Amino acid sequence: MPQEISRRALIELSVAGAAALAAAEAKALDRPTLPKDQKIGFAVVGLGKLSQGQIIPGLRTARSARLVALVSGHPDKARRIAAAEGLPDDAIYSYEDYDRIAKDPRIQVVYIVLPNGMHAEYTIRALKAGKHVLCEKPMANSVPECEAMIAAARAANRKLMIAYRCHYEPKNLEAMRRVRSGALGKPRLVVTDMGRQADPSDPSDVWRLDRKLGGDGALADMGIYGINAARYLLNEEPVEVRAWSSTDKQDPRFRTVDDMVCWQFRFPSGAIANGSTSFNYNATMAFELWGEKARLRADPGCFYGGNRLALVSGGNFRELDIAEIDQFAREMDWMADVVRGKAPLVSTGEEGLQDMRLITAIIESAAKGGATIKTDWGYKRAVDPAAVVDVVA
Ligand code: NAD
Q1: pLDDT tens figures, 168-211
Q2: Which of 198, 236, 292, 293 has its CA 20 to 30 A from that of 95?
Q3: Running DSSP on this structure, what letter comes out for residue 358?
Q4: Which atom of ligand 1 is the closest one to the Cα of 49?
Q5: Which residues are catalytic?
Q6: For the whole model, what pTM was predicted?
Q7: Hey, what's the torsion of the CAs at 380, 382, 384, 387, to 10 degrees?
């Protein structure tokens, strides 16, 4: 955390002042690209779409993280990617010999990019091998799995981070800061809509439509972004939830998972959040927050790139000009900096567990036709991303 400017002072300043200070502070940060031998070594587990499309490319440009090993069930694919990334053959592991990573000093962080139902097992095995873990969202498929992962990290005295990339994305951070600054007035309402069409001809969606591997369908895959966004925008935790689901059981995609789920969270401040998710509506990752004085609209708000954030007040719609960054590189650099002792852990296992508990409560409410479920479990986020993560990459 940079010392020049206190973050607390920053979030208490006016919005314009805060943005200028954040930019100045980022410039003042000493954040050079580390020499290769000082970068934190990442092993990527699972070489599917996200790993090949975003994670491995992100590691090429990361400042303090680098790719050092691959774990895959497909030796040919692993060898091809290893060759392209300049990795030696002994940096390739299979799922069977995965535990041998314990003896590989090149690997400091293991990044779990497997189907959701495999997150807990492979996270716990990596922690037992003495490695730090960055695990994709959703953290797992159940509350007990999340609890076991947190316990394993504690027992191994290793860091466990959940890959909530929006905690590191400049427009999401700017939205959080504008809410915290008070410039919008008291936050009243958040609306999040996160979904897409699931495609059963795509192997990446086949497991997402299978409860054993994908968990709670669209809610676990896409809705989780809205659950997390409502919480990080408001910086408080819901105390009650009501939910409803609507699934066409004739649609072969939804034999084991729900399709559309809509929910409502009530927060202690009086704010309400309405969320929706679906595997059968047009792709969207949008959120909106109404304050007493102004509104923030992000549409798209959580894509890999091309996100837009606008400030709306009365008839006045002003899109905010905020530079894009590679969210994945930024997130992996953050994990590397946590391991280096240079940054606080923001996206903790407890954050992932809180979302899993809320997913479970949403499912319970929907199964009971919208019954009110109490969700006041006393969780409080340890570190507010808006208070520590820089706006400018
Ligand atoms: P994918 O299906 O493209 O990749 C999964 C990989 O796991 C494949 O290489 C596959 O071969 C391997 N695998 C191993 N055992 C398997 C099994 N039993 N069944 C199916 N595949 C198996 O999926 P993906 O889209 O890369 O998603 C991987 C993880 O990343 C998921 O947890 C997902 O939620 C998460 N994800 C996160 C984001 C984000 O923006 N943070 C985006 C996409 C996916």
Answers
A1: 999 999 999 999 999 999 999 999 999 999 999 999 999 999 99
A2: 198
A3: H
A4: 3
A5: 137, 225
A6: 0.93
A7: 140
